[in-house]
């Protein structure tokens, strides 16, 4: 595996080498941290929705932290969309932190200060970006 020079991308690469599917880990953490979110998903077929939502979020994160080719704009669209669903803005933003926390746990000793700083900066920037998109 060629490690990326982008700490955010690198964190996903390391996680992928340890876990084939982040979806169950991310949503377990989401439901534990924010139990109210459990009712936001249908009981039947929600695994596909959750997997798709996570995949799109990761794509947006990687673009936001990287080249800004366009997928990061999904964040602005989803802010508005989730407002329409009645999802509090704080909860929408918290999902990004849930992903970070899941990666941090998976990486263990490989969670470096560079990765931590990059994620801290990214979360602040996403929060600001989501506020502008409102």
- Domain module count: 1
**Cα gyration radius (Å):** 15 Å
Uncertain runs are none
CATH topology type: Globin-like
Number of strands: 0
How would you characterize the largest beta sheet? Answer: none
- CATH class membership: Mainly Alpha
Strand content: under 5%
Between the first and last Cα atoms, what is the distance in angstroms?
39 Å
Q: What does the overall shape look like?
A: globular
**Architecture in CATH?**
Orthogonal Bundle
Provide the helix percentage. over 70%
The string of secondary-structure elements, in order, is HHHHHH
Secondary structure tally, helices: 6
* Class of secondary structure makeup: mainly alpha
What is the residue-averaged pLDDT?
87
Task: Characterise this structure.
The chain is mainly alpha-helical and 134 residues long. The protein has one domain (7-133): Globin-like. Helix content is 71%, strand content 0%. It is built from six helices and no strands. The chain has helices at residues 7-18, 23-33, 46-64, 73-85, 89-107, 113-133. Helix 5 runs antiparallel to helix 6 (113-133). The longest helix has 21 residues, at 113-133. The protein starts with 6 loop residues before the first helix and ends with a helix. The mean pLDDT is 87.
């Amino acid at each position: 595996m060629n490690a990326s020079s982008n700490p955010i991308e690198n964190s996903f690469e390391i996680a992928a080498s340890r876990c084939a599917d982040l979806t169950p880990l991310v949503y377990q953490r989401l439901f534990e941290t924010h139990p109210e979110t459990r009712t936001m998903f249908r009981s039947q077929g929600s695994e596909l929705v959750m997997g798709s939502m996570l995949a799109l979020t990761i794509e947006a994160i990687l673009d936001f932290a990287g080249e800004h080719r366009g997928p990061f704009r999904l964040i602005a669209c989803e802010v508005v969309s989730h407002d329409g669903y009645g999802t509090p803005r704080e909860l929408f933003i918290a999902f990004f932190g849930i992903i970070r926390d899941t990666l941090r746990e998976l990486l263990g000793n490989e969670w470096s200060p560079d990765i931590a700083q990059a994620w801290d900066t990214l979360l602040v920037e996403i929060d600001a970006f989501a506020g502008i998109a409102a």
